[in-house]
Amino acid sequence: MSKDVQAAPACRVRAASRGDFLPEHRRLAASLEGTVFQSPPLLEAWMGSIGCALRIQPHLVIVEAQEQALMVLPLGTEKRGPFRILRFLDAGVSDCNAPLLAPGFDPPPGWFAQLWPRIIRTLPPTDFAELFKMPDEVAGKRNPMRDLPATFHPTTGNLIEIAATGMAQYGADPERKKMVGRLRRKRSRLAQLGTLGFRVAEDRADAIAIWSRLAAFKRAQFLATFGFDEFGRAAIGHFYQSLLEGPGFGTTATTAALTLSGEVIAGGFLLLGSDTVQMVITSYSRDASLARFSPGLLLLIEVLRWSIERGAKVFDFGEGNLPYKSKWSTRLPPLHDHSAALSWRGVAFPLAALAFRRARALRVAAVARGPRRLTA
């Protein structure tokens, strides 16, 4: 694309909201490049579950030049007390947030910085922008939103770059060689308890059945760790199930399971890109007789093998700083957070948000401790 098309002043900025959001997104996304988290099947499921629960007002920012969409940016406004907060459509289920870009469109540094004030003026009035987990790149190109002032997100991405590394070289790493050897021995011992199997969901009904077991494992983990069911918050469980029930099943989302004598003992929720497989949720049976065999890691090995057979160039563990992710990953791409007041009221939002987080942490700690016995 020519530089004059990339020039921010020559671009037209418009926004599609409410009833126009999903049709416009579906129409434009087919010719754009981005992450699976901004794909139509995923955002449709998100709007029908989490978006409804949180009463998000969606805004699809569309940047055009010469009647061609150059960039599409899905955002939403959330009401938090007296504050109107501009955010990505995330609520904790997206591992990275970025715009969709036209193929071949690679704007120079500073392009988005010029455009951002116009985008803000195009949207309904908001008090504060919280744009978290922005990657450095989108579809192999510089993410134009990196023009915004930002800090490092507390956690990173976790990638196994299959194509770049090569599986022979990947497996030759001494530390990974030890890990694979330990898992091979655990697999052999586990197989003595019954027939060990692996499958990616064969059809929609199977995908939902695996998801049901995975969700049960995850709920038990949340309750044991935090004392509450995270999947019940803001319809998060409904979001994942609706992805499997919707048109994205098999192309955007599916599930995988490790089984013992036909019973699911570990499950994973997979998001599928053109050359990427991402395991966004994984959990396993808390049965002490099985947990010692590391069924979650055994499942990971099987899904990685399946990803290679599928032709994936990248296996993505998703965002997070869990030790097992960094041990298996070949690259930990940084993520970035942008926060800025957009009104006089917004100046007070960071303090209010800090007070809210502290109050929530105290509630979680109180639930985790359990009820205390009253004594005279």
Overview of the structural elements:
- Helix content is 39%, strand content 25%.
- By secondary structure, it is α+β, with helices and mostly antiparallel strands.
- Helix 3 (40-54) packs antiparallel against helix 9 and helix 8 packs antiparallel against helix 9 (236-245).
- The longest helix has 23 residues, at 204-226.
- 36% of the residues are buried.
- Residues 1-5 and 371-376 have low confidence and may be disordered.
Task: Supply the helix-strand structural class.
Answer: alpha+beta
Low-confidence stretches: 1-5, 371-376
Strand element count: 16
Radius of gyration: 22 Å
Number of helices: 13
Largest sheet: 8 strands, mixed
| Inertia-based shape | globular
N-to-C order of helices and strands: HEHHEEEEHEEEEEHHHEHHEEEHHEHEH
Q: Oligomeric status of the shown chains?
A: single chain
Helix content: 25-40%
The CATH class of the largest domain is identified as: Alpha Beta
CATH architecture descriptor of the largest domain = 3-Layer(aba) Sandwich
- Name the average pLDDT: 89
- Indicate how many domains the architecture comprises: 2
Task: State the gist of this model.
The chain is α+β, with helices and mostly antiparallel strands and 376 residues long.
